[in-house]
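Reply to dn_fold:

You asked what the input looked like. This is it:
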Amino acid sequence: MVACPRFYPRLPAEARDRVLRLGERALSGASFDPDAAGELLR
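and this is what came back:
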């Protein structure tokens, strides 16, 4: 449901992509670096 257009229809596509990239990055690494969130959500 994170960034789902059905639940957040006004969220711009660019913002949705950033949120999904953050999730993908969190799942792909051995450990998640919370400082990376600011970098990805700019």
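The chain is about 50% helix and 0% strand.
Hope that clears it up.
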